[in-house]
Amino acid sequence: MFGYYLELALHSFRRSRALTALMIVAVALGIGASMTTLTVLHVLSGDPLPGRSGSVFLPRLDPRDRDGYDPYAALPSQVTWTDGVDLLHARRAARQALMVGGATAVQSDEREVDPYLVTARYTTGDFFPMFGVPFRFGAGWSAADDDGHARVAVIAASLNDRLFHGRNSVGRTLHVDGADLRIVGVLEPWRAVPHFYDLATGEYAGAEEVFVPLFTARELKLKRNGGIECWGQGRTDDDRIESSTCVWLQFWVQLDDAAAVASYRAFLDGYAHEQVALGRFTRPSASDLTNVRRYLDERQVVPGDVRLQVWIALGFFVVCLVNTVGLMLAKFMRGAGELGVRRALGASRRSVFTQLVVEATLIGVAGGVGGLLFALLGLALVRLQSTAAAQLAHLDGTMLAATFAASIVATALAGVVPAWRACRVPAALQLKSQ
Amino acid sequence: MQIRPILSALRRHKAGTILIALQIALTLAIVCNALFIVHERVERVSRTTGMNESDVVAIQNRYVGTPASYVPLVKTDIQALRAMPGVEDAYATNAFPLRQGGWSTGVQLKPDGQKDGVQTALYFGDEHALKTLGVQLIAGRNFNAGEITPFNRDDRPAPPQVIVTKKLADKLFPNGDALGKTVYYSKGRPSTIVGIVAKLTVPWTEVDFPEMVTIMPLTFNSSYQIFLVRAKPGQQDAVFRSVAKTLYDVNRMRVLPEKYGVRTFEMVRSRAYEKDRGMAILMSVVCAVLLAITAAGIVGLSSFWVGQRRKQIGVRRALGARRSDILSYFMTENFLIALAGVVVGVVLAIGMSQWMFTHFEMQRLSFTYILVGVVALLALGQAAVFAPALKASKVSPVEATRSV
């Protein structure tokens, strides 16, 4: 029976080519626009650490002075050197990493390429296991390396390709702004989207290319950058920043279950009270433990334009659908005479209805294919922009399936009203007027 | 024109009528708001910086290694740039308009002011800055060579002399007597306003103090330097191509980042407004396609109605109706549907604008846009229905006698 319905549908398409083409194009444009914008939104609001983001937390304190105190404002998302090192050395979490971004000039030991500038991250060793960063060669460094100011580095796949032609460079030397570091690990291509662990260096920045132990980097005076907030006598001068009243480091911890979270919360609260008692913190004691998802929501990382585009595209899709409903109504009513004949020959109202919905669904399938092509085109246009965020816009399996499903379901639903109207026309009336 | 028969005919085509009206309403709501977004973005993109933007090349430089001071390196580089053939002038700075990154601070009228001053962007430079930027000095004087001092990161920028923009001067001293007055960029450290420039914008495009700028006679002692170069008229491309080599010939221990190391000001501007331009283009395309689809939908449904009513049209023609009567019947019918559509559409458009105002920090839709949208959609409806209506008017009176 389904085959017969398909045949009837194709027959009907052939009879009114322009109308059918118009419906398909309208559905395809609506689907294409919606899927392009939804894909961008989906990519930009994705989970930066799939499977891990629930157990990674940002401990927050408020070490600022009384100036401009607002008990309802969000706590700083960065820590001072003193607090960061204290919390790091307390080792109360399963894993913890203290870090800051930077930029440094690098050169290989062969010195065949001019030094060039790469983004860097100065961090303690837990960064790699905590964020699940995959290694191609070698491994990260240990807590002992951190404490011993080891002259080591981990480099990204892209840097390894450029400096060492993709070969295993573990054990080779990397010149970083005049200092020599031994390469201990090479990463697989990896990036967190959004760049949640340090939003100030670019909300959708790619991963850094060089990773150096934090204490080593400070000793070598490697250039840091990123967000910094100072108060009182705090100065952003790099040489004295450790003792300055400024927050400039990011501190992340891994807490695997609710008990660990509760106990870390208690520890952090105790730490804050202790600092207030010591007179280091002048504001009322405050601390917080924010997980990755909540932090990204708080900072409103997804650009407003992207959300606006999604709404506009969905509105556009609704207009396309209304348009399709109207055209389908015209098409089905035009074929009412034929339906009358079928009804008179014994087809039930139900089977006529089913046949018309099949016809509508077929338009949905064609519209879905067209919509997919439009979405691919749309995403290619999005990627023409040079922002880091735009480069991420690719269609994945989920969105591909969603495109088709949305197109078919929406068009089938759009077919219901016209089909219902058409199959209610009394058969006898149609036959009489012929 | 009789409206009553049209209305009673429409009552028999409720579904189709409602669908067309709904489509017109939604199209109006989206098109008004989308065009308004285009307007906002185009307005932003066409803002000027106060500079003479032609023939300017911006270089992002970072020295490699750790000398005792970077200032001598900067001086050598600037000398080399000024000596380049085709170069009019050059200076070193920390930021420039549309760069999307720079420094800002609060400026106060009192030496011991608390936190909130007037927000201003800070540009470092020397006596060549004004000429290189191509900004117009409207009062006071330029810096002189003796006033330029090195600036270290551990200090706060507060030189004895500053040049400010007119907007900043007027904000600080509403009476217009800012020249020669003392202001404070750091507690207890006075700066005198020695000059006022007509206009210069901050490095960022989305802040609420777009023209509050202070130029300070400082040379930033840092491995990061920005060199702005003004080429002689017509020499920009030659300078753009050879400037990296000139700098590398002076000293190889530097990095000019690949993508944005050397840029003409057109490139800077295009990068700064890329997102806005993209949004404007997208919204324009959405409007065009939406109007096309709505027009096509009207053509499709009207053609169907004409086909359905051939017999009735034939009867009317046989009873003496002229062709123009049939034509105007369909035109009026469409006008009535479109009118209902735009009435609902205006309400939707205002609701949508209100919603965007609260969720996306947009301005409220201006009534001009609603009016333009209403007229556009009514015209679009008339244009779309014209072909089917013309076809209807050509139906012969003989149709009345045929049984189909």
Word description of this protein:
The complex is a heterodimer of chains A (434) and B (404). With 434 residues, chain A is α+β, with helices and mostly antiparallel strands. Chain A has two domains: 176 residues, no CATH class; 246 residues, no CATH class. Helices cover 49% and strands 16% of the residues of chain A. Chain A is built from 14 helices and 13 strands. In chain A, helix 10 runs parallel beside helix 13. The two termini of chain A are 27 Å apart. The mean pLDDT of chain A is 87. By secondary structure, chain B is α+β, with helices and mostly antiparallel strands. Chain B folds into two domains: 169 residues, no CATH class; 188 residues, no CATH class. Chain B is built from eleven helices and 14 strands. In chain B, the strands form three sheets. In chain B, strands 3, 4, 5, 7, 8, 9 and 10 form a seven-stranded mixed beta sheet that branches. In chain B, strands 1, 2, 12, 13 and 14 form a five-stranded antiparallel beta sheet that branches. In chain B, helix 2 crosses helix 11, helix 3 packs across helix 6 and helix 8 packs parallel to helix 11. Chain B is elongated and about 105 Å long. At the A-B interface, helix 2, helix 10 and helix 13 of A face helix 2, helix 8 and helix 10 of B.
